[in-house]
Amino acid sequence: MIVFLVNGKEQRVDVSPDTPLLWVLRDKLGLTGTKYGCGEGLCGACTVHIDGRPERSCITPVGDVQGKKVVTIEGIPENHPVKKSWLAQDVSQCGYCQPGQIMSAVALLASKPSPTDADIDSAMSGNLCRCGTYGRIRRAIHAAGGRRARKGGSRS
Ligand code: FES
Ligand code: FES
């Protein structure tokens, strides 16, 4: 039995410890906001927070989160500045990558409330978006952090 906290609530799951955390979140706990993209830790679609750090749930065995705190996109309040900013900046296109993008952005702003463009590009580089929303993501992060976006940039 694996016991851990998900979005503040204790969960007990009877699965093999090497089951990917992503499968447990989606299939056992019904938290389908976290997406499956590559399954290899390369795209960031499955990003969740584990003890406050953004991690790839597709390559994290659930046994590794025993006793830890996991937060998914469902655990970020609707009135969180990042979610509000995402809507205000109309960031999403198809939306598939966006839960992972938001989880990375929330973690970035928690550690660096007023990031530079370089900070954002570095923190977000593991989150791929096939729709190319990088420019709006950057603007939304600046806005959520209360900093004005600069013009230009390589990932727009
Ligand atoms: S699905 Fe986990 S990094 Fe791509
Ligand atoms: S919004 Fe479509 S993949 Fe990012």
UniProtKB/TrEMBL annotation:
Pfam family, one: Fer2
Residue stretches spanning the membrane: none
CDD domains: fer2
Cited Gene3D superfamilies: 3.10.20.30, [2Fe-2S]-binding domain
InterPro entries: 2Fe-2S-bd, 2Fe-2S-bd_dom_sf, 2Fe-2S_ferredoxin-like_sf, 2Fe-2S_ferredoxin-type, 2Fe2S_fd_BS, Beta-grasp_dom_sf, Diverse_Oxidoreductases
Keywords from the UniProt entry: 2Fe-2S, Iron, Iron-sulfur, Metal-binding, Oxidoreductase
Annotated ranges, domain 2Fe-2S ferredoxin-type: 1-76
Molecular function (Gene Ontology), one example: oxidoreductase activity
PANTHER family: BLR6218 PROTEIN (PTHR44379:SF2), OXIDOREDUCTASE WITH IRON-SULFUR SUBUNIT (PTHR44379)
Protein name per Swiss-Prot or TrEMBL: Aerobic-type carbon monoxide dehydrogenase, small subunit-like protein
Organism of provenance: Geobacter sulfurreducens (strain ATCC 51573 / DSM 12127 / PCA)
Lineage per the UniProt record: Bacteria, Pseudomonadati, Thermodesulfobacteriota, Desulfuromonadia, Geobacterales
